[in-house]
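I had to read the description of the data format several times before I understood it. The format is easy to grasp once an entry is in front of the reader. For illustration, here is how one protein appears when written out as sequence plus structure tokens:
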Amino acid sequence: MKNLLLALFILATASCSTAQMTYSSKNKKAIALYEQGRREPGKSVDPKTHGPNYAGGIALLEKALEKDPAFWEVHMVEAEMYIELNQPHKAIEHYRKALAINPNPTSGGSTYYYLGTLEYGVGEYENAVKDLTTFTQSKGAHPDNITMAKQIINDCTFAIEAMKNPNQFKPVNLGPGVNTKDPEYFPTITVDGKTLLFTRLIDDKRVTGPYQKQEDFYVSNLSTFNTWETAVPMPKNINTVNNEGAPTIAADGRTLIFVACSDESGINYGENRKGKGSCDLFYTKRLGNQWIDPTNLPGAINTSSWESQPSLSADGKTLYFVRKVMARGGRPDSDIYSSTLKDDGTWDTPVRLPNTINTPYMEESVLIHPDGKTLYFSSQGHPGMGGLDIFVSRMDENGVWGKPENLGYPINTSADENSLLVSADGEIAFFASDREGGFGDLDIYYFVMPEKFRPVRTVYFDGLVFDAVTKKPIPGKFSLVNIKTGKEVIKSEADQVTGAFTVSLPINEDYALAVSYPGYTFFSQNFNMTLADNQESFHMDVPMVSVSNTVNPVTLKNVFFDLAKASLRPESFVELNKLRDFLKANPTVKIEIGGHTDTRGDAADNLKLSDARAKSVKDYLIQQGIEAARLSSKGYGETMPIYSDDAIAKMPTEKEKEKAHQENRRTEYKIVK
């Protein structure tokens, strides 16, 4: 609304400045007061705002109307001044009074354009359609404004229908643990839903100049009583006297990317920080309980322009953010970009999202959901209720973003809506609002997301990586691959101090996990992420076996064969390539590959099949460049089961029995001297 009013003020004052100095009033006192009122903002300073004295000008204009109530030009200028004071309802009132006296006060019907645009901005959609339609039919109307008026009429038509079919929307304040008298906004949350990080605008006497406020980060944890605990500020190496805002936190809560802006000098971003211009993206990592000093995001994202509002994908490979650009005529604009993480740890040259998402107007407040294919963002350019509305777009199987959907009324209104955050399960959304009933200014609220706007449900997958013998935590590097597509969906590492990891995964998919660390054999496991409706997480511990261990074999959980055959299925290659890489990284290691079956079927046939399967793995590794002298293979048939037939017979369900048989059918390797 503020940008809209500013644009209208520029247009209106330009129109007024070129108007002829012949007035409808013959009252000399009224004319004198009118001219004094017009000049007053440029002659004196408002003691309250320290800006042009529009309030003083309005007071003189009101006196002019007392002398001549039919002096319509006074209403026109008074409307323009109320636009500059960000009081659209008052501006509308005076435009209507001017038109009631003179239905054609300006050439080309521009007053109807100003009035209709203001009515749209405050949600008077039917009045806006009427007045903007009058403008488009006016002789001499400016073509650019006709184009804009038609777009606004379309928006009003959408808004009228949306209000007839409202979505369920019952926002709940997060409470005093998060919200205070100060503004709180731009929330971000860990994938387990237990840690909320947000921006708070605080008073700070260290800030130079009359506006002694700045933005800092605060963190609140969800208590066992399901309430948010009192938020505490981030450490001093994160929060500075300058502004920090718009954070995005990685799924595991250990990587933070945020915006830091320079002070008035344009070069100081805070202690030990260097920027490239205006506002830049910085990042920091948490090791154990300590956050390292933030550094400018490496790579090609930051420029001399304004980069802000980052959103990191759950796999940590793609960063979405907003960059300010300058539109035609000097109008402010911003677009959504994305960048991918390169193998060297730097971010690649950003790519502007397609025109399906970006428009010639403002796009802001981007959020990529943990499902990796649902994008929420705010926009002024798509059909909406007015101001910034929140939209959702979904990526198809070919990586193409679909047509954005407006989240509808009353989630969106004639005001600006942004700062949306959607939980991993897609059921809850958070946003900032200064609505009545809060703790003061902007507060953070949550609401139940309507079903049709929800993303793919994701849950968090967590665990610990540790030495199988000593139990010492290990910062293992791990990879998660979707078995069906063969696509690596997560590449990360466990905490360097605790060995803990947490990632987000869409449900109802089969995944292969591989974990590696120097000096250890790699760990593998496959699992299906089919969970009960009320299940929020999936836990798996990762015991790592030292390369010096020549006793315990390592099962290749993600190696698969065709039924009753020794042919490797393609989804096995990801796992076997990990084994190949391990052998190349440890050139002195020799291994034996062992094949095993369950006890069902003929024992001799099982022995032959297990031997052939072990040999298939050996042959694949040789094809991948591993010396044959380092490899041996052997089939054990059904002679070394994990579960005996007696143990399986005692299991209570057929499902458990079948799972035991599956674990007996396996391919292993062990290190040999």
